[in-house]
Amino acid sequence: MYSWLSAAASRFGAPHARKLAVSAIRLAASLAPADTPPSLRREVMGLSFPGPVGLAAGFDKHGELYPSLPRLGFGFAEIGSVIPRPESHRSCGMDTVTAILSQYPRPHPIPLGISISMNRTTPPHLMSDDYLACLERLWEYADYFAINLGVRAGPDLHMTEHAVVLRNVLTAAKDAQAKFERITGLHRPLAVKIDRNRGDTASLLSCVQEFAFDGLILSGDVESGAEHHALDMLEQVAKMLNDRIPIISVGGIRTPQDAVDRLSAGAALIQLYSGIVESGPFLIRRINSRI
Ligand SMILES: Cc1cc2nc3c(=O)[nH]c(=O)nc-3n(C[C@H](O)[C@H](O)[C@H](O)COP(=O)(O)O)c2cc1C
Fold it and tell me: 62: CA distance to ligand 1 center in Å?
């Protein structure tokens, strides 16, 4: 039934398919809650996750859906990407997000990550200011932050052209982590989201290791049928990091078997976006019952 509706919505474009998925999440969350067994609990980045399956960034941009997610079996959620100044076609920016998140009781039932990014109009030499503005304003609201350097982060961010700029962003983020922890007494893990399709993965990976980030979100928009590339890449990176930095795998996870494969290949956690649009929110329960 859901696939039929989803196929119909897809014909009218991605925004309609996502809207249908949002309504399905709200409706499904009003039904019987998922029974997430204690065996699925994971300790990652110093946080406790009731399960390893999370909602990927971009789906719940402002966090409105967050309260519905634990009942569906999600073990965590990444809201955003949030940008410092509103851009009508992308996101309403930080004020909208803080207004929504301040209503939620603490501690959160599942870890709430905030993905942060930059405005499209920000010139490369001011890029780190955008990420810092987000960290400063949102520090108290998140359980962890994702520094989004993926393909959807903004203007062309190729490491080959902007190696110094990207390095500056990562250095500034690490400094800010220590500074805001000192000021607020709140520790916030930082994960870096990079994209395996960009061609600059190796340089970014070495920065992530050098600065000892708390997590790596290894992403890529994976077309159906190319999932094995995502798996190969995950295996290579997992070998390289050798458990020093936990990996969150995202991109092309559409079935319970995909989830099993990513977790066996070394991912500590996984995230989904398209799979939920295509198959509906009960996919998370099906995954949880297989892992
Ligand atoms: C419409 C759309 C918007 C997205 N927006 C964001 C975003 O704001 N920030 C981000 O880090 N990733 C964003 N993503 C990427 C997803 O988080 C994810 O990495 C990607 O879709 C691959 O996962 P999937 O194959 O499960 O869809 C977006 C993806 C889609 C389809």
Answer: 14
